[in-house]
Request: fold
Amino acid sequence: EVLLVQSGAEVKKPGESLRISCKASGYTFTDNWIGWVRQKPGKGLEWMGIIYPTDSDTRYGPSFQGQVTISVDKSITTAYLHWGSLKASDTAMYYCVRRGWGDYYDYWGQGTLVTVSS
Amino acid sequence: DIQMTQSPSTLSASVGDRVTITCRASQSISNWLAWYQQKPGKVPKLLIYKTSSLESGVPSRFSGSGFGTQFSLTISSLQPDDFATYYCQQYQSYPITFAGGTKVDIK
Reply:
């Protein structure tokens, strides 16, 4: 069974750094790209970016380039999303997703709620 | 970037209704389109990929069609479990883009 299990909810202050994680299991981690999708409260889905675990080839959405870093640790089949300096506008639910045979997303993590507030 | 637009943004319907949601791309995306369903407080779920391919386990009352810039998702007979928000997503090119969603609620 394919599972993407994300780290727990976070409450941070503006300017703080944060890394959230997504532990993959049930498939060969290096076979599929893995990405992140943001959903602000009451809003739609936004594609943040995606990484290929085999070689760490990464693509970012234009709104997220330079704002976050996506990485993986193949040894523990885990993907990460990192912020160097959080803003209040980063408050959202973040989902990790597994890319299917095309760039659609067939498996989703349970989501990590990030709240940024002073 | 390819812009995706859905209509309507909200749709009120009754159990048993045939429901169609449309999705438009700002340029041709061939058939590289997916549909997702999201219920309140839940994780989005893949329904359809490559315009019309039903994801495993998805009921056959869901169907997709279209090509190029115009697409649709049809629910042939709306069931109580189908009240949710639906999103289309293009994967013709990066950046991947989603439309704003269509909320299907109870009339």
Notes: Chain A is about 0% helix and 55% strand. The mean pLDDT of chain A is 97. The interface with chain B takes residues 37, 44-47, 50, 59-62, 95, 100, 102-106, 108-111 of chain A (CB under 8 Å).
